[in-house]
Amino acid sequence: MSVSRGLAAILFALVTLPVWGDDLVLHGRVVDESGAPVRDAQVQAGTVWTGQTDPTGEFSITLAKPTDVPISIEREGYYTLKDQVVHVASTQEITFVINSVHEVFQSENVNAQTSPVDVGQTQTEEHLSGTEVNDIPYKNSHSLRNALEMLPGAVQDISGSLHLNGAEENQVLYLFNGFNINNPISGQFQTLLPVEGIRGVDLSVGQTSAEFGKGSAGVLRVSTQNGTDTFRYTATDFIPGVDIKQGLRIGNWYPRVGISGPLIKRRAWFTDMFQSQYTQALISGLASGQNMRSGWAGSNILHGQINLSSSNILFADFLVNVDNEGHVGLAPLNPIGTTYSQNTRQYMGSVKDQKYFGRGMLLEVGYAHNYFSKAILPPGESLYILAPEGNGGDYYVHSQQAGTRDHGLVQAFLPKFEWLGTHQWQIGADVDRLHYNGDFQRTGYEVLGLTGQLLSETLFPTPARFQVSDLELSAYLTDSWRVSKNLQLSLGVRADRDQQIGATGWSPRAAASWAPFESGKTRISGGYALTHDSVTMQMLGQPLDQTAITTNYNADGSVAGTAATSRFAAPNSGVRLPYSSNWTAGVDQQLWTRVFLAAQLLRRRGKDGFAFLNTLAPDAPPSLLPAPNPQSNAVYELTNLRRDAYDSVRISVRQALSGQYGWMAAYQWSRAVTNAVVDPNSPVPLQELPSLVATPWDVPHRFVGRGYGPLPWKNWSVSAFVDWRSGFPFSVRDQSGLIFGGVDARRFPVNFDLNVAVERMITLRGYRFALRGGMDNVTNQANPTAVSRVLGTPNFLQFLGNEGRHFVVRIRFFEKTGK
């Protein structure tokens, strides 16, 4: 009881602590038209740069005497509030309202991004605006996942897996309007989100606030548009495309529809965004009629906001994803018979209550339920065949998986107080309850040699059905400490607890931002963060999965020895949460008005990573087969032996033009290495190496550029995207599946994409349309996606799956102009 009373006394003292000094202070708060706080808005008092708003939307201006102050406020995606005069006669609090912009065509007076030279920013981030997500012509521009490749620190490997800041896909925390949307089974980012509903995307680079955990490589935050008192609607690609490559047929079709507006004016609003995609991918290198992969997917986001009072806001979201894909895995070396159907479903509902108490104090309480299921259905039950010149038979995995996550959160921004500067504390906690059901009925596969002889046969005779649950607990404390006008510190600590493995991880965080010159046009920043990865449910279910039995054969077809079993075992006690030590440093310089140059350094060292070690043959040579040690019995036990390292140096320049136009160019050198042989057949690596080698997604050199701007003719605009990078590493193997030479010692050719699009805005009978035509891969670069990697085959090291040039047409429809 005495401890509770002591904590209550401390909180009471923080809430009632007065602001020291006799100066006049204008406490401002910036909100949007629906009353929601706007963080990171740029604030100017006359010609003096004041800073930016905190997460509660607040800022403060200190004055020596009563006066009239012209206030200007800017934030990307909002109309600029210019020179609103405020008379300050005493310390007071005033709320400023800035209106959000839903489409670039509504105004030419839309501001740029938050200034990167403001010392209030201690966290290094990459940002994509809703305009860039919708209007830059990246590959398959209906997909938010593909849009992330516009960020210099994001790539998709040959298999389509996403890698941010050099990490595996499940080493990043993905947030949707503040809630965890990582796949509860695999930890990956597999949520389809309609791009028209995206307000912005932020990717933290290395150093993150203690508010965020469960991702050692950073945090990806996606926010959606809010509704307003004006009904708005849009429709994109509502007319299907036509493909004439192999006869006249309906081509890829990505219809998208959105509507937003008031439920109760000035009180409650909604936004509903629907996206559907029908795809037919033509795979080069296969025979006509056997070279088409098709699928249909749909996603809908319903977002609502109710202002229970002027200081109490309730948010709610409901997300539905449906994805049915046929002939998954179709590739030049995987003919149509080896493919499978894949059906996934996701449902997520969330609610968050936000209460503002004044003086920078804000409380948020929220809950989300996330359901995800995945079914893999092969066309038949014959054995899968792994042959040097191409695979055959039926795919060997038949499975159904379902997982849920119940996520509860509470966080509070405590009132600001003065002690050697200005402090604002943030405290919070998360609770995640996870469940996983697995049903696996694998058949088996055969490995053939160069002459067609049978080398080995692996069978999975006993199906596996299991259930696993886990509980994750987290708590954190951060202090945003403004030491002076030119120096900002961010300090914090976080604790993450996993019930299943019985481990707790402590995460200290520290960052600083300093403006060394009076002009305020230069910012030097840096920080350190120790971050932890979470435990995936797929990993916990692995010891309950099927056992593989492998029989090896001699050259004459006779059985070689006894059959070998490969199974997984539950870990011994002492397993720890993986962690990474992240160091960041950066310099940001304003060159001219709205032109910024940035240099960033990231160093990450990952230790105690999860890996399954074969305790019966820990030094077995690395293999590319699904069961990497078929020669003798194997028992794989979970360990913390994995180590990763990532370094990057990035130089970028960007300029914000009038409206939401602008451009960005960046070069990045990076190195991503690991001691684990990353296996696409297993959620956790099964083999460790004595030294670090390049990961399959390592990209030493990359140049990325994007731009969106007006043409000399009225209502015309042009957009472009360029991506030049080193080719991905790969390994070659011998006929038995063992890696020949170094792991990932070879590389694909350099990849180069140049996409350009021109758009014309027209008005018909008061309605607005945007017509866009463009070309992807203008230079017709091959950009192969596959390689023959078996030593001794006639086509050894031949690259396959050329990308080719694509023409793209898009039609967008908007509401009436109001003129």
Description:
This protein has 2 domains: 2-100, Carboxypeptidase-like, regulatory domain (Immunoglobulin-like); 125-816, Maltoporin, Chain A. The strands form 9 sheets. The chain has a 22-stranded antiparallel β-barrel. A 5-stranded mixed β-sheet has the order 8-13-14-11-12. It starts with a helix and ends with a strand. The chain is mainly beta and 819 residues long.
Classify the beta-strand content into a percent band: over 45%
What is the CATH level 1 assignment of the largest domain? Mainly Beta
Q: Which parts are unreliable, with pLDDT below 50 for 5 consecutive residues or more?
A: 1-21, 103-113
- Figure out the total of helices: 4
Q: Which architecture of the largest domain does the CATH hierarchy give at level 2? A: Beta Barrel
- The portion of residues assigned to helices is under 10%
Supply the helix-strand structural class. mainly beta
Rg of Cα set? 28 Å
Please provide the count of β strands.
51
Q: How many domains is the backbone divided into?
A: 2
